[in-house]
Amino acid sequence: MSTDADQCPQFLESTQRLFDQRYARECERLSRGMMWLMLAQWVACVVLALTVSPLTWIGSAYSIHVHVIAAFFIGGTLSTLGIWHLWKRPAAPLTRHVIAAVPLLWTCLLIHMTGGRIETHFHAFASIAILSLYRDWRILITATAVVAVDHLVRGVWFPQSVFGTLMISPYRWIEHAWWVLFEVSFLIPGCIRLKREIWTLCQSQVETEAAKSNVERQVLERTSQLSATVEQLDATMASVTETKQFMQTIIESVSGLFYVLDEQGRYMMWNQPMQSLLGATSEQMGQASALDFIHADDRPYIAEKIHEVFTNGQAVAEARLLTSSGIRYVVLNGRRVINDGRLILVGSGQDISERRATELELSEFRETLDKTHDCVFIFDPDSLIFSYVNQGAIRQVGYSREELLNMRPIEISPEFDEATYRSLLKPLMIGQTDNRIFETVHRDRQGREIPVEVTLQFVRMDAEAGKFVAVVRDITRRRHEEAERAKLENERSMLHRRLLEYSRKAGMAEVASGVLHNVGNVLNSINIATNVLQKQVESSAVASLQRLVDLIETKKDQLPDFLRDDPRGQQIPVFLQKLTRTLEQEQQQAISECTEILEHVEHIKEVVNIQQSMARSKAIAMEVDPADLVRQANNAIRDSLDKHGIRFEQTIDSNVGSFLSDKQRILQILINLITNSKDALVEAKADNPTIHVQVRLHEDQVIFLVADNGLGIPASQIEQVFQFGFTTKEHGHGFGLHYSANCAVELGGTLKVHSQGLGCGATFELSIPRRPSPSPGNIAAVTSLTLPEQESGRTEWHGRH
Amino acid sequence: MRKLPIFPGIITVLGFAIVASGLIGLTAYSHRPGLTSESIRNSDDLKKLVKAHVQGEKTLFLFYHPHCTCTSATISELHDMMGHMASPIPVVAFAFVPESEEASWIETRATRSLRRLPRIEIQLDRLGNFAELLGVSTSGCILLIDREGNEQFRGGITAARGHIGPCISQSDLMRACAERASQRNEWPTFGCQLQSQFSAKD
Question: pTM value?
Answer without folding.
Answer: 0.41
